[in-house]
Design goal:
The complex is a heterodimer of chains A (293) and B (246). Chain A contains nine helices and 13 strands. Chain A is α/β, with parallel strands linked by helices and 293 residues long. Chain A has two domains: 148 residues, Rossmann fold, CATH 3.40.50; 67 residues, Alpha-Beta Plaits (2-Layer Sandwich), CATH 3.30.70. In chain A, the strands form three sheets. Chain A has a six-stranded mixed sheet with strand order 5-6-7-3-8-9, sandwiched between helices. Chain A has a four-stranded antiparallel sheet with strand order 11-12-10-13, with helices on both faces. In chain A, strands 2-1-4 form a three-stranded antiparallel sheet, covered by helices on one side. Chain A starts with a strand and ends in a 7-residue tail after the last helix. Chain B has 246 residues and is mainly alpha-helical. Chain B has one domain. Chain B is built from eleven helices and no strands. In chain B, helix 3 runs antiparallel to helix 5, helix 7 runs antiparallel to helix 8 and helix 10 packs across helix 11. Chain B is globular and about 55 Å long. Classes of the chains: A alpha/beta (293), B mainly alpha (246). The interface between A and B is medium-sized, with 32 and 25 residues. Chain A: It is found in: Cell membrane. Chain A: Pfam families: ABC_tran (PF00005). Chain A: This is ABC-2 type transport system ATP-binding protein. Chain A: Keywords: Antibiotic resistance, ATP-binding, Nucleotide-binding, Transport.
Chain lengths: 293, 246
C-alpha cells in the first residue's frame, strides 16, 4: 500500500514545551485513521505538520513523497477550518468558490453542498448560520478539492446526534470511494464508529497504534481503590500505586479483581471503582513502574 | 495563480462592500470637509480649490491605506480562517495580493466623493490629461502609507491597530498640509512639514492637478520614507511569519 503521509522521528518544540517527541507515523492510502488523545497531547501539532502550517524542530514530514510546505503537494489534501473563523459576510456558495479556485479539479458546488445538507443555504451569509450549519460547512470545505487525503479535526463537535450520524455517513462513503482520512477526536465513540486503525497520542508520543478493538480493550481500564494496610498481590492488575492510605489498582477486569480481593481475605474498606480517563489509562499502561502484569 | 488572486480580491471586496464602514469612513470625512470648508471659503478660487480637492482626495486614500489596511491585516491575523487559507495549495501570497488590490480599490473609491463635490460646487478645474495622470499620482505616493498600514497590522493586535492607526493618521495629514494649506500653518509645522511623508505626496498631487512647482525636499523625503517603511513592513512580516508559521 502506498504511504500518503508520514513523519520520521519528528520532534517539535514550542520554546521549552515539547509538543512532539520523536514521532514516527505512516498514513497509508485507503486508511481511515483515528487520532485519539487528550487536549495538549500533540494531535493538533501533528496535523499542523502534515498540512504545512508548522515545520518540525527535527525529523522529516512527508506528504505524497514531497514536502507539505510545497503548495503543489497540498493539492491532494483537504483540511477543515475552525468554524468560528469563517468569513461572516460571505455567502456559503461564495466561500466554496474561493476555496475551489485553489484546486485544479474541484468538486461540483451543488453536489458538494447537497452531500452535506447545505444545498438550501448556498445563498445564506455565514453570519446567519447556526453553529451546526457552520460546522457542516467547515467539514464540507475539506472536500472541495476532491482530495486523496483529508484531515478532519474534531469534525462533529457541537453537532446533534442526527447531524453527527449524517456526517459519519459522508466520511464513510468518501472512504469507501478510496479516500484516506485522518480524523481527530476526544471521543472514543466517534473513533469506534469510523476508524479501523487508531493512533493514541499523549505527552507528545505515540502511545498505541493498533486496531479499534485492541485500543478499546486498553482504554477500558478501570481504577479500583480502597483503604488497606498492605497492597494485596492480585492477578490482572496492570499498575498499582498508593494514594495516602488508599491502595489504587488499575485493571481491565474490575469484577474479577473484586472477587479475588474478597476471596484473598485481605481486610479492606471504602471500595471505589471508577472509569479512567484516556490519559490515565494510557499513563497507567506506559508508566515504567508497572507493578504487575 | 492569477485566478486565485482574483478569487481572493473578489471575496475581500465583497466583505468591504457588505460591511461598508471602511468605505464610508474613508470617503465621507473628506467629502464633508469639502462641503464645509473648501466650498464656502476657497470654492471661487480655481487654483486654491483645485489643490484643496487634491489634498482631500489624498486624505481619503490615505485613510484606506493606513487605517483600513492596518485593521484588516491585524484582524486577519487573529482569525482562524487565516491559517486555514495557508493550508490551501497556494500559500500566503494570493490572499496578500488580494488584500492589497482590495485596499487600492477602496482607496480609489474613497477619493470619488471629494472629486464629485469639487466638480459640482467649486471652481476647481483641471485638464482631462491632468485628471488622468492624477490617479497614478495618487496611487504612487500611497505606497509608503500602505507599507505603514502593513507594518501596524503585522505588529499590533486588531484593537491596537485601530487605536495606533488613528493616532498616527491625523497628525500625518495635518503635518502634510492636507487639511490646511501649508502656507497658513504655524511656523514650526511649516518647518517640519517637508520632512513628513504626506507633504511629499501632496506636493506631487498639487503639481499634477494644478501645475504648481513641487518642493524638492518633500519629494526626496517621501522617497526616504518609502524605503524606511518598506524595510519596517518586511521586518514585521517576517517576524509574524516566524511566530505563527514555523
Amino acid at each position: 500500500m502506498t504511504t500518503l503521509a508520514r513523519t520520521i522521528e519528528v520532534t517539535r518544540r514550542y520554546g521549552d514545551v515539547l509538543a512532539l517527541d520523536r514521532v514516527s507515523l505512516d498514513i497509508r492510502e485507503g486508511e481511515l485513521v483515528g487520532l485519539l488523545g487528550p487536549n495538549g497531547a500533540g494531535k493538533s501539532t501533528l496535523i499542523n505538520l502534515f498540512v504545512g502550517l508548522r515545520r518540525p524542530t527535527s525529523g522529516t514530514v512527508e506528504l505524497f513523497g514531497g514536502s507539505p510546505s510545497d503548495p503543489v503537494t497540498r493539492r491532494g489534501i483537504g483540511v477543515t477550518p475552525q468554524e468560528t473563523g469563517l468569513p461572516e459576510s460571505l455567502r456559503v456558495g461564495e466561500i466554496v468558490d474561493v476555496v475551489a479556485a485553489h484546486f485544479p479539479a474541484p468538486a461540483a458546488k451543488d453536489e458538494l453542498l447537497g452531500r452535506f445538507g447545505l444545498d438550501d443555504l448556498a445563498r445564506r451569509q455565514v453570519g446567519g448560520l447556526s453553529g451546526g450549519q457552520r460546522r457542516r460547512l467547515a467539514v464540507a470545505l475539506a472536500f472541495v478539492g476532491n482530495p486523496r487525503l483529508v484531515f478532519l479535526d474534531e469534525p462533529t463537535t457541537g453537532l446533534d446526534v442526527e447531524a453527527r450520524r449524517a456526517l459519519w455517513e459522508n466520511i464513510r462513503s468518501y472512504h469507501a470511494g478510496g479516500g484516506t482520512v485522518l480524523l481527530t477526536s476526544h471521543y472514543l465513540e466517534e473513533i469506534e464508529a469510523l476508524a479501523q486503525r487508531v493512533v493514541v497520542v499523549g505527552g507528545g508520543r505515540v502511545l498505541a497504534d493498533d486496531t479499534v478493538n485492541a485500543v478499546r480493550d486498553i482504554v477500558g481500564v478501570r481504577r479500583v481503590s480502597f483503604h488497606a494496610p498492605e497492597p494485596p498481590d492480585l492477578p490482572g492488575v496492570v499498575k498499582s500505586e498508593r494514594d495516602g492510605d488508599r491502595v489504587v489498582l488499575f485493571t481491565a477486569d474490575p469484577d474479577r479483581l473484586v472477587i479475588d480481593l474478597v476471596r484473598g481475605g485481605t481486610p479492606f474498606s471504602g471500595l471505589e471503582i471508577t472509569p479512567t480517563t484516556l490519559e490515565e489509562a494510557f499513563l497507567a499502561l506506559t508508566s515504567k513502574e508497572s507493578a504487575h502484569v | 495563480m492569477s485566478s486565485i488572486v482574483a478569487a481572493h480580491t473578489r471575496y475581500l471586496m465583497l466583505e468591504l462592500v457588505r460591511v461598508p464602514v471602511a468605505l464610508l469612513a474613508g470617503s465621507l470625512f473628506p467629502a464633508i470637509s469639502m462641503l464645509a470648508f473648501v466650498v464656502p471659503f476657497t470654492g471661487g478660487d480655481a487654483q486654491a480649490a483645485t489643490t484643496a480637492t487634491a489634498s482631500l482626495m489624498f486624505f481619503g486614500a490615505m485613510s484606506g491605506a493606513v487605517i483600513g489596511l492596518s485593521i484588516a491585516v491585524a484582524t486577519d491575523r487573529e482569525q482562524p480562517w487565516d491559517p486555514y487559507v495557508r493550508t490551501l495549495p497556494a500559500g500566503p501570497f494570493p490572499r496578500f495580493a488580494g488584500r492589497i488590490l482590495a485596499t487600492l480599490a477602496v482607496m480609489l473609491l474613497s477619493t470619488l466623493p471629494s472629486l464629485l463635490v469639487a466638480a459640482l460646487f467649486t471652481e476647481a478645474t483641471t485638464t482631462p490629461l491632468r485628471l488622468l495622470l492624477g490617479f497614478p499620482a495618487l496611487i504612487a505616493p500611497s505606497v509608503p502609507f500602505m507599507l505603514l498600514g502593513l507594518f501596524i497590522g503585522f505588529v499590533m493586535s486588531a484593537k491596537g491597530a485601530v487605536a495606533l492607526s488613528q493616532v498616527l493618521f491625523f497628525p500625518l495629514a495635518i503635518l502634510g498640509g492636507l487639511l490646511i494649506p501649508p502656507a497658513i500653518l504655524p511656523g514650526f509645522i511649516q518647518a517640519v512639514s517637508p520632512f513628513t511623508p504626506a507633504r511629499g505626496a501632496a506636493e506631487l498631487l498639487w503639481a499634477v492637478a494644478a501645475g504648481t512647482t513641487p518642493d524638492a525636499l518633500a519629494l526626496v523625503m517621501l522617497g526616504v520614507w518609502t524605503v524606511a517603511l518598506a524595510a519596517a513592513a518586511a521586518w514585521a512580516y517576517r517576524r509574524d511569519e516566524g511566530r505563527r508559521f514555523t
